Amino acid sequence: MPIIHNTEPKPHGSRPLSGWQRPQRSGEAFYEQGLCWGATGELQASIKERSIMKPNRCIFLHCFILLILLALAVCQTSPIGKEYKKSSRNDSSSTLYSARANLTDGIQLRFEAETIAIDGSIIRGKFMTSEYTGQLVQAVYKSICGDAQPYQYCSTAQDLYRYVAYGKKSLELLKGTLSEEVIIREENELNTYLEFAKNAPADRPLANIADITNYDQGLVMVNMGGASPAQFQVLTVPRYSIYYSNYQLPRVSNATCSEPLRMTQGDAISIADNVLQKIGIKDEFALVRGQDGTVNHAYYQLFFNDNTKNKAHTLLYLRRVNGNPQLDDSRILLGTDNQYDPSFLQEYILFKIDDNGILSFEWNTPGKLQLTNEPESAISFDDAVSIATNQMKVSYTKYTFKEANPENIRIYISRIALGYIFCKGTGNTADVLPAWEFYGYIADESKPEGADRYYDVNTKNWTDSYENNIGLCVMNALNGNIIDRTGKY
Fold this sequence. Notes:
The chain is an alpha+beta fold. The chain has helices at residues 134-145, 157-174, 180-199, 265-279, 381-395; strands spanning 36-37, 43-44, 92-102, 108-118, 125-129, 150-152, 219-222, 230-235, 241-245, 285-294, 311-319, 348-354, 357-364, 367-371, 409-424, 429-444, 453-456, 461-463, 471-476. The strands form three sheets. Strands 3, 4, 5, 14, 15, 16, 17, 18 and 19 form a nine-stranded mixed beta sheet that branches.
């Protein structure tokens, strides 16, 4: 299989490709990292040169307007107490556990936790990436696109004219939000697209999905009924990945969105399960996270209020281990700094689905499991609680929490789970281990009525919201060794 020099799926929320040229890409491209792609496809080294207001800005070259994740900026949940959807399994057991403990410097630890432990034997193993076959690629394509004819990737004159119209209307409404200097720069860039459009092709050449890895960037386009074509892409570096996106240019308005998401999460799950069933992998994967949030369909939507945007369902599937769903943790799967690191091996399938159908599908690092046959014993629940309590005495002290009275700090453990996780291995493998994970959040309860801020364990700062899908303590269930779920295993 030829190597495709690409690092991640073609993102949405970016600008059209300059004419039909291939962007020269290197490194990662998502806006949290501040990388910027200019109109000629050259990597812009300076963040300051292409910044809009305070946030880092990334400009990705693309024939359409599709915005990357995630770092989950695509779908945002409610600000307080972000919800997760637990995976289900008939042979798992669930109970409630309540306890309190005093940690260092007057910090209090409170367990009001649902406990979930898999039944049956405990095993370990390895996950290994594998080259996907042409048969698998075609099965994924057919499950999503049916018999639709693919086309080679390029920006047509119509694509560019449509994008320029969208961009200029957006900039008109963003006057007062963006500086005059930025508006002028953006308008000049849109005018360059009009120049490209003069020599752009009117139509796209036909493509054969069986030859997709031979096409530029492993990418084809397909008409799925929208004004803009969808895209289907396979990648080989830094890891194998299959990606589909069908984002359309949005309406441009400052008005509150008048089209609420009508599709239920159950209907979205049915659509996703049907795709997995057609591929032939439904029984191998389990839904571990489901949420809905606003979606940025196009670049300039980044600068509009969220209430002007449509919503979509985000569904995350992980490969089962010995029939059990893996444990989910928001820090290590999506939207984190190590998500696109070449050494990060976490297979997942991610759907984004709205009332019009599948917005995107991403199968990251397809592979296979090699599990041991010999069952092993996990440390007991009581031992796991004891180890976690002692670890949190070390991890969370008065020096951890800036500008806070430690006597007002409360660490709440809301869920304790025994399950499987992928840990960083060597090369193209990852260790598959049973783990005890203690999910919760940290609150500063200085006010009598309760918490007024929450501690973000990723940024090490206080915020006005908390994430209840974070493992505050994770340990190897075989020996009690502490595991850093952020990737430093």
